[in-house]
């Protein structure tokens, strides 16, 4: 069945959604069948891939709280080999609605451990998480084989990293013993300033091989692409951002064989 | 008593904390007595002002859930006229812990509507919110006179703006009829690219005078400052970031007289 990777970091604006969209489309371009599951009530991944409100009649809210099947809510995108299970604002009340529910942290796992999903043909499922360690992100980590951490090359993002690592360990101990860290990818790297380098040095010193070799540079084409409902690979294929995400996809896939 | 301003935006990484710290310290430099209330479990405002864990024995968790007085949890900072009520990770369980509590959206308001706070000598209280429209942010909006919205000059941030405006209206209708929008400030503006300009045009067209004239430029000194536990005004007073936040403080104070 598909390998399931949660893209998580409680710090806001570090590139979770951008990585879901662009790593996903880069892997798709390499022939991998990719599903993005959007569990952020903001629905940025869904918007960034051009999924209109009409195409979100069923969303990950229905997957988690209405017991709908993944196949029912999944839609194709303009990108070959890339599908998405979109999110809507309904999700913002999910953790309140689930308070009494003793299965509340395993809802996504149950939705993904079906024969239908196993036989879906997807090679990878990438889960785009909200900026929080709330119930939605916990569901993603409980349901996943690994967690990919986008790390913005700035001070506050670095500060939050140890908290995230603690949460991953907690989920491993309490609900998902085989949960691994897929890797930490430095994002929005600005090679003209010292701060990016310091964050990189810190990360590599503390996390060693967990940190991808590939670094995603700050590149305006990356932030322009979603306004055209396109991944940067399609919007500007030769841009530094596009090339970096292609490189990240190749590195991630290479690393799979070593496991 | 002090004017209370919530700094809110559910989109992550748009400059809420950076604005709390730097607008706050710029106003303090103009002689205003400022209190920052940090209600983000990440505690970035507290970290960015150098508040160590030992000085956070009492935090906004105790203010909201243990009924402690604001005066008990407030600490001074290295910045003259600037105090802070710090946050800790305990806050991350606040909304779950408060589920049964019928007063859960008015807890912060009650903590701030005391004689002690009225006579505290603070001119302004700035509340730094997490990237969410969850219970913590709702508490801030219910407790505040106005909401200041940092708007990152990029596509996803613009997308989230109407959702935020709806939430403000909802809070106004349900719990706080005098809640206003203090203003929307464009942050991390990159004048070299078109996207920033497009976001600005969109914002000014749709929100008119709500948008501050002052624009905060993207400036690496702003992102370096918190790693020295300093506001950018103290870290690099002549930097473009420092000058812009000083200008924002002056503009905000000027606008008070027109109300
Ligand atoms: N490499 C890059 N170069 C330039 N801009 C980027 C880059 N990566 C992301 N961005 C922009 O930075 C902003 C934040 O990125 P993004 O929304 O992907 O982060 P996020 O972690 O998903 O945020 P949230 O916490 O709100 O979910 C977006 O406007 C995005 O377009
Ligand atoms: N004008 C600026 N120039 C350069 N970097 C900036 C600027 N404003 C903010 N930053 C940096 O951008 C990142 C996000 O800013 P900040 O943490 O203040 O946003 P936030 O909205 O509080 O995020 P969160 O949603 O996680 O609370 C931080 O690393 C910050 O230092
Ligand atoms: Mg996102
Ligand atoms: Mg913040």
Rg over alpha carbons of chain A: 17 Å
Mean pLDDT across residues of chain A: 96
Which sequence of strands runs across the widest sheet of chain A? 3-4-2-5-1-6-7
How many helices of chain A?
13
Largest contact between chains: A-B, 38 and 38 residues
Biggest sheet statistics of chain A: 7 strands, mixed
Share in β-strands of chain A: 5-15%
Give the helix/strand class of chain A: alpha/beta
Helix content of chain A: 40-55%
**Unreliable segments of chain A (pLDDT under 50, ≥5 consecutive)?**
none
Give the ordered list of helices and strands of chain A.
EHEHHHEEHHHEHEHEHHHH
N- to C-terminal separation of chain A?
A: 16 Å
Report on the architecture of this protein.
- The structure is a homodimer.
- The first copy, chain A, has about 260 residues and is of the alpha/beta class.
- Helices cover about 45% and strands about 15% of the residues of chain A.
- Chain A is built from 13 helices and 7 strands.
- Chain A has a 7-stranded mixed beta sheet, sandwiched between helices.
- In chain A, helix 1 (about 15-30) packs across helix 13 (about 240-255).
- The radius of gyration of chain A is 17 Å and the shape is globular.
- Chain A starts with a strand and ends with a helix.
- The model of chain A has no long low-confidence stretch (mean pLDDT about 95).
- One adenosine-5'-triphosphate sits at the interface of chains A and B.
Can you tag this structure with a few keywords?
homodimer; 259 residues; alpha/beta; 13 helices; globular; binds adenosine-5'-triphosphate; binds magnesium ion
